Structures are given as structure tokens and as C-alpha cells.
């Protein structure tokens, strides 16, 4: 990795030992979990899969970007970014890739305003930039609803 004199942040190292069936953790001790393949892909389904890590990364990165844009534009409202990551076939037999769908909602704002915010966040979000051109990423604006987790309906018509 290149050293950048203008680097804004460097995170603690993330380490994974023994792949599926192993453990992933942050070197600083702030987080650890078992890792496995999903049951649908022949794994135990225990712990986290790369898709789950990606979903957390996407929703938090997009949420942070939305918050920054809202602060810049002096808008306020509680945000809810729901992210669903799917594994889909990719060419050669056995190869797969990620596809990402996000629902974006902001309490107290009109859907048109939320759409503008989401469009801006899509362009500015570091994770959106990282996956651009490599991962199908769809962002949909939805009305804000108070919901208890889980909030992304897995059986919804919102397909990737």
C-alpha cells in the first residue's frame, strides 16, 4: 500500500485465521467473530461471511456519507440505511461475485429530497467508489418507518 502524507485515517489491522470455520478479529480487540460460508453455499452459517461484513460496511459507510451531506446542506432527520448483499454467479463454474441493494430512508424529509441526498451519497461514499464497476449496486429511496431489526425484508420484491 502506498504511503500518503495526506491520509485521513488508518484503521487497526483486521485479521482472519483459517478461512471458513476460523475467526476474524480486529487487532485492537474491538471486534471478533467466527467466520463461515452461508448454509446455502455449503457452510455452517455460523458467524459472519464476507457478504455480512460487506453489508455492514456498505450501510455504515453510506450512512456516514449521508450524515456529512445532510450537515453540509443543513438538513436534519434520522437516517436508516438497509443493505442486502447477495452472492451471484460470475462466469466460470464455482466463481461468484457480490451484488448490493440498499434502501435509504430519512425521517421527516420528502422522498424527493432523500433521493437527491442518496444520489449525492452514492457518488461520494468511499465504499461506493471502491466497488464501482465491480459490483452491481442499487440504491432505492423508501419512506421512513420505525422498525425493529431486521428491517430489510428478505422476501421483498427488491431484487438485485
UniProtKB/TrEMBL annotation:
Checking SUPFAM superfamilies in the record gives: OsmC-like
Q: Which InterPro entries match?
A: KH_dom-like_a/b, OHR, OsmC/Ohr_fam, OsmC/Ohrsf
Pfam families from the UniProt entry: OsmC (PF02566)
Q: Name one GO biological process term.
A: response to oxidative stress
Q: PANTHER family this protein is in?
A: ORGANIC HYDROPEROXIDE RESISTANCE PROTEIN-LIKE
Q: Which family does it belong to?
A: Belongs to the OsmC/Ohr family.
The protein, known as: Ohr subfamily peroxiredoxin
| Upper lineage | Bacteria, Bacillati, Bacillota, Bacilli, Bacillales
Amino acid at each position: 500500500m502506498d504511503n500518503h502524507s495526506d491520509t485521513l485515517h488508518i484503521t487497526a489491522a483486521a485479521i482472519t485465521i483459517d478461512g471458513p470455520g476460523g475467526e476474524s478479529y480486529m487487532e485492537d480487540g474491538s471486534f471478533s467473530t467466527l467466520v463461515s460460508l452461508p448454509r446455502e453455499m455449503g457452510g455452517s452459517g455460523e458467524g459472519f461471511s464476507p457478504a455480512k461484513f460487506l453489508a455492514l460496511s456498505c450501510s455504515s459507510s453510506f450512512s456516514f456519507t449521508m450524515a456529512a451531506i445532510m450537515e453540509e446542506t443543513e438538513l436534519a432527520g434520522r437516517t436508516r440505511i438497509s443493505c442486502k448483499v447477495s452472492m451471484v454467479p460470475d462466469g466460470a463454474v464455482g466463481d461468484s461475485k457480490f451484488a448490493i441493494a440498499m434502501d435509504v430512508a430519512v425521517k421527516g424529509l420528502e422522498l424527493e429530497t432523500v433521493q437527491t441526498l442518496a444520489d449525492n451519497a452514492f457518488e461520494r461514499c468511499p465504499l461506493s467508489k471502491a466497488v464501482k464497476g465491480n459490483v452491481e449496486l442499487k440504491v432505492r429511496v423508501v419512506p421512513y418507518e420505525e422498525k425493529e431489526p431486521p428491517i430489510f425484508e428478505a422476501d421483498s420484491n427488491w431484487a438485485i
